[in-house]
Amino acid sequence: MKIGYKLAAEAFGPAELVRQTQRAEAVGFDFVEISDHFHPWLDNQGHSPFAWTVLGAIAERTERIGLATGVTCPTVRYHPAVIAQAAATLALLSDGRFTLGVGSGERLNEHVVGREFPAVRARHAMLREALEIIRLLWRGGYRSYDGRYLSLEDARVFDLPDEPPPIAVAASGPPSARIAAELGDGLFATEDKPEIVRRYAEAGGAGPKYAEVPVAWAPDEHTAAKAVHETTRWALTGWKVMSELPNPVNFAAATTTVTEQDVAQKFACGPDPARYVAAARGFADAGFDHLVMQNAGPDPDGFLDFYAAELAGPLSELTPGTPT
C-alpha cells in the first residue's frame, strides 16, 4: 500500500504547499497529490495558486517523494497540448517522480475562460480526445490531430523524458472507468465504491488505483469537525453537484444545511488513530492501493506529526481487496 498526502491548494498559498511537501517527505509519505483549481470551493478557503508552478518548486526542493495532480482537466481551461508539455517538463525536473492525474473537470474552474462547460457525455468524449493528443505528442515529432472537439496542428514537445509519466484517470462510474482502462495507466477516485475498481478491471485496467480518504486531525473531535464544516463542507454535496456549480458563493449556498454532525460522519475527525485506519480500510477493501490522506483539519503540522507517530505503519500494512 502506498500512502499519499493531499496538498489542498484551495486552503494554502504556494510557499506553504512546498513547505508541507518537504515535511510530508520527511515523515515518510510516499507521494503528494495537488488539486489543480482556478477557484477554491469556498471563499473562506482563501487560496488557489497555479498548481504547475508549485509542482515545479516542489520537484526542485524534494528528493524522494512522488508527485501527482489530483486532478487536472486537459480540455477546457487547458488545451491538452499544454498539459502534454507541462507534464513532460515536470517528469524531467522530478527525475520521473510525477504522475499526471486527469479528469473531466468542474464548472467551478473551467467556465473562467468563457467557454461553455459541456454536459457529462461530451466531457467524457473530450477527455478521450485529450488523452489521445497527449499520448500522440509524447511519441515525439510534429503531430496533428482532428477530433470532434479538440484539434492539434503541427505541434511538437521538444523536451520529453525517456519514459512518459503515467496517467491516472478520475472515474466515478462505468463510462469514466472505461476511459481510465483504455487510455490511462491508472485509476483515480474519491469514493470507496468497489464497483468503480471492478468496472476498471473489467475494462482491462490493471494499473495503480488512487483514492482520497477524508480525514481531519485536531486534538479533539469537535475542533476537527468544526474546521471541516467551515472550509470543506462542500465535500458532502456529491459529484453531480461538485462538477456543476460555477463559483464559491454557489457552494456556500448549497451547503447551508450541512452540520458539524454531517461532516463528522464523512470525515475521520479527531485524535483517535483507529478511526483513520478504519476509514482507510474501507478504501483498501474496495480495491484501492494508493490512499491519499485528505486532511481538512486546522493544523497541518499536527496532522503530519500524528501520521508519523500513529498512522504510517498501520496504513502501509493495509492490503487492497479484490472487489466483486
Automatic annotation (TrEMBL):
Q: Does the keyword Chloroplast apply?
A: no
Question: Luciferase-like domain location, by residue?
Answer: 8-290
Which species? Answer: Streptomyces buecherae
Supply the alphabetized keyword list: Oxidoreductase
Q: Which Pfam families match?
A: Bac_luciferase
Q: Which PANTHER family match?
A: 5,10-METHYLENETETRAHYDROMETHANOPTERIN REDUCTASE, PTHR43244
Write down what this protein is called.
Answer: TIGR03557 family F420-dependent LLM class oxidoreductase
Against CDD domains, the record matches this protein to:
Tetrahydromethanopterin_reductase
EC number(s) from the headed UniProt entry: 1.-.-.-
Do you know which SUPFAM superfamilies this protein is assigned to? Bacterial luciferase-like
According to the entry, what is the taxonomic lineage of the organism?
Bacteria, Bacillati, Actinomycetota, Actinomycetes, Kitasatosporales
- Under the GO molecular function aspect, what terms does this record hold? oxidoreductase activity, acting on paired donors, with incorporation or reduction of molecular oxygen
Record-linked InterPro entries = F420-G6PD/mer, F420_G6P_DH-rel, Luciferase-like_dom, Luciferase-like_sf
Residues folding into a coiled coil are: none
